[in-house]
């Protein structure tokens, strides 16, 4: 005969079944976090290596090292892949680290994979202009003049506005000529930016020339200027 401890017990079976049910219902299902990850931003997604490089460069300059020396000797920057190096450059520009951004951009231009992008120049010239580094803005524009870029009207419009806001009249006109040289068609925004920007700087003759060029290219754009001025008054 079976002992009482091994005998069938309905109560024991019910208890075991309930325990299994509780265990099953409390099981946690882990979701793949990768599905919730935000999409990368063009040129600005920061990998761990890129973050470390940004921090390393900033620490070096805070300790007194010149930006050029910090960039040239930083081992973390040297090990970065293309996307990470571009991300470091754009992050430094976004943080207002103008000298570091310029030096990293110099290094990018030496890389075998380098292919110029106008929005990189817009980032660079914007931060240099905001920091009042006029000679460095001229240097960046001299780089730009030696490039061959794809047509990009919106990019040039941003660049022209940046230069006008920083009162770089001649560089603005140089970049406008580059725009046309590289088969980038000026649009209404281009001419409005130039006419109003030049007028605000007191460059009335240049502004008048841009109005005439706008009229030649767009005809009705001249009326648009008049309508806008009437609305503002």
UniProtKB/TrEMBL annotation:
Signal peptide location: none
GO molecular function, one term: RNA binding
Region (Disordered): 19-42
Any GO BP: chloroplast organization
Domain of life: Eukaryota
UniProt protein name: Pentacotripeptide-repeat region of PRORP domain-containing protein
Organism per entry: Triticum aestivum
Native organism taxonomy: Eukaryota, Viridiplantae, Streptophyta, Embryophyta, Tracheophyta
